[in-house]
Inverse folding.
């Protein structure tokens, strides 16, 4: 008896150590960086670049990228005449002054990577007869890769691609301050078939990086006033098709996250410039995109981006240190599913023993054929990340959860497959087809006990578990319904209860005559 107790303690100790080590690996931060946009004001005319800079510097990021307008109020400034006499017409006033820890003219030491904005190219209102005069100063000031107008760099697992999609030079402002994309300064073009775009496509085709982040100044998809929602059609490149993971923009002085075509587009322009009051209560004919997930401009702020083993986490934080938005980017075709296994779950701790779970995606219509599958190790909260390869975006599928000694469980309805798909079986019994879940504490769990894997908990399962329990069999066994690596009375209790309840799989099916019905 003493040896059996020792074996049980050893098995449990191993599992607890395994859980601890898994938790430490999955939550370990790899690197972090900051994103600022439309900031280069030197605190002139009621702006507050200093507050944003203090916030960003407090994070101590490894490096900073910008979404443009790194300098405002250039030479021949007229619009800010009522501000202080000193105009910001040098980058030291907006870069070195606030972000000198990251900026360096030594390319080997530089950790400040800007993109070009319209103010960087043309000042506030460009009356200078020399086209591109300000951009020349921009290139002289920064030490950036490639031609410095658009470039790429690699930091760890992330490939950053900075694009110059702005329109600049002497003709930026036309018709009394109305933008036009008909005059393009960038000599390599801004169309999707331009030299610059083909360079981006080739880079994405050949890159072996885990993540690909596009950043630029002009926005792609955004909320705006009626008639101006498609101001920049030439910069709408097929980034998702080419292999990018996310696109970050500036220009508009607010924060907005848009999800369109299985791609996330973020506008980040609250780095220090004056607010754009473009909300329903301040501007007539304002149109909020239906794909807009959040639109915010109450307070200035910036983004803190953290890389983990399985994700990039984008946080927009305002200068009051409030997290306004948190977006988790997973690898393409990766979905997050939460499920708890009845025998493995302890409601008093809210944790379960992690184990491997396999998911299948089945078509939404009869005969409900399986189109894809993925396998993952869940964590102690039941979360698992499952990466599929064959499922089609925007198609409807049933989710089928299969565990080695539990009852096959289907989602209540088909769900739309995309990169943001998340499904939680634990929140309500209705999340499973036929309400086929059991409640432990406040969570709903997948029934345990189908060790034979025939879709029903019955005498065959009871026989396997009884035989293994009689010998105190240890290890990763089909009869171990509690996950503690030993088959004993606790496992027999689980299977006995579910045999008595006639627990079995519930899923959509067809009768012999082709009529739809629910299997008992």
């Amino acid at each position: 008896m003493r040896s059996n107790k020792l074996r049980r303690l050893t098995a449990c100790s191993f599992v607890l150590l395994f859980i601890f080590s898994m938790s430490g690996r999955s939550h370990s931060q790899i690197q972090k960086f900051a994103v600022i946009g439309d900031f280069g004001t030197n605190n002139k005319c009621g702006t507050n670049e200093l507050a944003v800079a203090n916030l960003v510097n407090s994070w101590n990021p490894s490096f900073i990228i910008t979404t443009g307008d790194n300098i405002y109020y250039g030479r021949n400034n007229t619009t800010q005449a009522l501000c202080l006499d000193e105009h910001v017409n040098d980058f030291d006033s907006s870069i070195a002054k606030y972000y000198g820890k990251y900026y360096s003219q030594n390319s080997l030491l530089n950790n400040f990577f800007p993109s070009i904005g319209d103010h960087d190219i043309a000042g506030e209102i460009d009356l200078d007869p020399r086209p591109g005069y300000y951009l020349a100063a921009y290139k002289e000031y920064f030490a950036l890769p490639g031609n410095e107008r658009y470039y790429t760099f690699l930091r760890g697992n992330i490939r950053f691609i900075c694009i110059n999609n702005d329109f600049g030079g002497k003709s930026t402002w036309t018709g009394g301050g109305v933008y036009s994309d008909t005059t393009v300064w960038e000599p390599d073009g801004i169309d999707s078939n331009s030299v610059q775009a083909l360079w981006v496509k080739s880079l994405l085709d050949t890159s072996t990086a885990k993540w690909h982040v596009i950043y630029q100044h002009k926005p792609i998809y955004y909320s705006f006033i009626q008639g101006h929602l498609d101001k920049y059609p030439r910069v709408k490149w097929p980034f998702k098709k080419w292999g990018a993971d996310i696109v970050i923009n500036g220009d508009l002085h607010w924060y907005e996250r848009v999800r369109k075509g299985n791609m996330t587009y973020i506008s980040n322009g609250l780095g220090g410039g004056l607010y754009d009051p473009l909300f329903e209560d301040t501007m007539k004919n304002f149109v909020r995109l239906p794909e807009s997930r959040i639109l915010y401009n109450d307070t200035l702020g910036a983004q803190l981006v953290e890389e983990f083993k399985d994700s990039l986490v984008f946080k927009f934080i305002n200068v009051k240190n409030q997290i306004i938005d948190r977006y988790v980017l997973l690898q393409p075709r990766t979905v997050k599913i939460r499920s708890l296994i009845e025998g493995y779950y302890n409601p008093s701790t809210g944790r379960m023993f992690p184990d491997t779970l396999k998911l299948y995606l089945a078509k939404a219509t009869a005969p409900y054929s399986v189109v894809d599958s993925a396998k993952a190790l869940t964590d102690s909260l039941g979360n698992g990340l499952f990466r599929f390869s064959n499922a089609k975006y925007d198609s409807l599928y049933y989710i089928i959860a299969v565990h080695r000694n539990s009852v096959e469980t289907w989602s209540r309805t088909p769900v739309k497959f995309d990169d943001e798909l998340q499904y939680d079986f634990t929140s309500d019994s209705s999340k499973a087809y036929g309400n086929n879940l059991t409640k432990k504490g406040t969570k709903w769990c997948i029934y345990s006990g189908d060790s034979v894997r025939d879709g029903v908990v019955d005498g065959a399962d009871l026989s396997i578990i009884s035989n293994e329990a009689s010998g105190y069999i240890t290890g990763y066994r089909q009869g171990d319904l509690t996950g503690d690596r030993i088959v004993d009375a606790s496992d027999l209790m689980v299977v006995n209860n579910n045999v008595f309840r006639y627990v079995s799989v519930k899923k959509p099916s067809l009768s012999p005559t082709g009529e739809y019905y629910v299997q008992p």
